[in-house]
Amino acid sequence: KLLGALGIGGAVSGIGTFSRSRRRSLISIERRISSSLRMLSLLISLPRSTLRPSISDDSLVSVAYHCRSLTSLALSHCPQISDQGMARALPLLHRLQHLFLACCDTVTNETLSIIALHCDRLRTLDVSMCKDITVHQVDLLQFQLPFLEKVQCRFANGADFTVVL
Fold it and tell me: Quick one: 39 and 112 in the same domain?
């Protein structure tokens, strides 16, 4: 009654409401953090291979279609990527500067020919451990692409070298 008579009763009850509301918000935040930490601990315990989605030619083409301004594309260790997928995706990626295809077993010299046709801004290429890429085709590619600075070919078709231009 005294607080009401002084005209501050409403303010004090408002503070109580604010505190309850703030307490609920903090509890909600704490629950979300706890849930996120549990999810993170589950992800950390998974083998690395289960975290990488299986990327197919169709998903590559979809990414290329929707993200035409990509400058860097890392497809290393994606065994389902093939020459056919690269032939459909690369014409859409004119700004591509860095392409990583290491350990893509179904990528061949045909992909290098497609790169030469459509990726004239390419600066970095990694075809390490691509068994069907030849050193001769890599040499031809270097002459066809004016901005190409680095080609990594470690163990590609038995060769072991990195070229920095």
Answer: no
Q: Are residues 43 and 81 both part of a single domain?
A: no
Please give the chain's pLDDT, 165 residues, in tens: 444 444 445 545 545 555 677 777 777 777 777 666 565 555 555 554 444 557 899 999 999 999 889 999 999 988 899 999 999 999 999 999 999 999 998 999 999 999 999 999 999 999 998 989 988 898 899 899 999 999 988 766 555 555 555
- Domain residues for 7? 2-49
- pTM for the whole thing? 0.65
User: Are residues 90 and 116 in contact, defined by beta-carbon separation less than 8 angstroms?
Assistant: no
For the chain, the helix, strand and coil percentages under 3-state DSSP, each to the nearest 5: 55, 10, 35
> Cα separation of 101 and 152, whole Å?
10
SS3 sequence, 3-38?
HHHHCCHHHHHHHHHHHHHHHHHHHHHHHHHHHHHH
Q: Does residue 56 sit in the same domain as residue 43?
A: no
Domain count, the chain: 2
